[in-house]
Design goal:
Its cofactor is Zn(2+). Keywords: Metal-binding, Oxidoreductase, Zinc. Its EC number is 1.1.1.1. By secondary structure, the protein is of the alpha/beta class. It has helices at residues 39-45, 93-96, 138-142, 147-158, 174-185, 197-205, 219-227, 241-249, 274-280, 295-303, 322-328; strands at residues 2-5, 14-17, 28-36, 61-69, 80-82, 120-123, 130-131, 166-170, 189-194, 210-213, 231-236, 251-259, 283-286, 313-318, 337-342. It folds into two domains: 2-146 and 290-342, Medium-chain alcohol dehydrogenases, catalytic domain (Quinone Oxidoreductase, Chain A, domain 1); 151-286, Rossmann fold, CATH 3.40.50.720. It contains eleven helices and 15 strands. Helix 4 packs across helix 5. The chain is globular and about 55 Å long.
Length: 345
């Protein structure tokens, strides 16, 4: 099968013919129908993700069709499935308590084992997957596996965002724009923050209430003026020091900051003003992925027409163009995300 393989950090991925994956006894092999290109993949491509090494086949935002099922598999041939990027064991205390995204025995295609920048991908622990709803295209569904599920968990399970509250989202890439759209669907008033005006215009065009250009000065002061005192919830969707501090600074007393952006490599350790946290009685939440049992609540929102993620998809690309998309994350990116839909070229 064809796959895009990381051979050198910061170099174009190499398209290679590699062996078909073996089917796990408790899982399936999927023919990949679509796979998103995510900033988390970029962290590995530049060599800052500690788990990703040369030889890795990336890709963790995938949707596919079952072409082989193991003897203990949950699904059958022909099923079309959406995959979370964290595959939890289902047996440990974390899984039993409903927090499977913290499972200590989790499997991670695209990070440790071969991912979906390929024609086929093996998926163990397939009880984490869910059937693709009718009416939801594989291209849009591919984006649910990381950016949308992460945003949903951040807003509902971590921050407990409520209708009528002010939500600030710092960074309008895939996960940031997903958080903004979900915030609107939950009834919040939403402010998007970025340094790329086209991305802010895109967000406002999709119904986001305000766009704040971080290049125009003090972000926190602008948000406090708009909201009359600060956001109730603020999401940081980049993983860099400057936006983390801006996210904390823009909150009103008793506000909730949610760390969605991945702090890894040179951003793993940051300096923030803890006095702001102390004086404001703020809450700081970390979040990563989403427990698989939360899929029905998210998919129900989509199927009911309360949120449309079609505008999230800006580009459908070939497998051979994946490296180009990863390199684009080296600078400010255009609106929307890229999804691989052509695995033959």
């Amino acid at each position: 099968m064809r796959a895009a393989v990381l051979r050198e950090f910061n170099k174009d991925l190499v398209i290679e013919d590699v062996p078909m994956p073996e089917c796990p006894p408790d899982g399936v092999v999927l023919k990949v129908l679509a796979c998103g290109v995510c900033r988390s993949d970029w962290h590995g491509w530049v060599g800052e993700h500690p788990r990703i090494k040369p030889g890795q086949i990336g890709g963790h935002e995938y949707c596919g069709e079952v072409v082989e099922a193991g003897p203990m598999a949950t699904y059958k041939l022909g099923d079309r499935l959406v995959a979370p990027f964290i595959l939890a064991c289902g047996k440990c205390p974390a899984c039993h308590s409903g927090h499977s995204n913290t499972c200590p025995d989790q499997r991670l295609p695209g990070f440790i084992e071969p991912g979906a920048f390929a024609q086929y991908v093996a998926v163990p622990f397939d009880h984490n997957l869910t059937l693709l709803p009718e009416g939801l295209s594989p291209t849009v569904a591919a984006g649910l596996g990381c950016r949308v599920t992460t945003a949903w968990h951040a807003l509902t399970d971590r921050a407990a965002l409520m209708g009528g509250e002010w939500l600030a989202v710092h960074g309008t890439g895939g996960v940031g724009l997903s958080a903004a759209l979900l915030g609107k669907a939950l009834g919040a008033r939403v402010i998007a923050v970025d340094i790329v005006q086209d991305k802010l215009d895109h967000a406002v065009g999709l119904g986001i209430d305000y766009g704040v250009n971080a290049s125009d000065g003090d972000v926190a002061a602008q948000i406090k003026k708009i909201t009359g005192g600060g956001a109730h919830v603020s999401v940081e969707a980049l993983g860099i020091n400057q936006t983390v501090q801006a996210s904390i600074d823009c909150l009103r007393p008793l506000g909730r900051h949610v760390q969605v952006g991945m702090p890894v490599g040179h951003t793993a350790t940051m300096q923030i003003n803890m006095n702001t946290v102390y004086m404001g009685n703020l809450a700081l939440y970390g979040t990563r992925g989403m427990p698989a049992h939360r899929y029905p609540s998210l998919l129900a929102l989509i199927e009911a027409g309360m949120v449309d993620f079609t505008p999230l998809i800006a580009r459908e690309i070939k497998l051979s163009e994946t490296g180009r998309e990863l390199a684009a994350f080296n600078g400010p990116t255009p609106p929307g995300v890229a999804v691989i839909t052509d695995f033959l070229n």
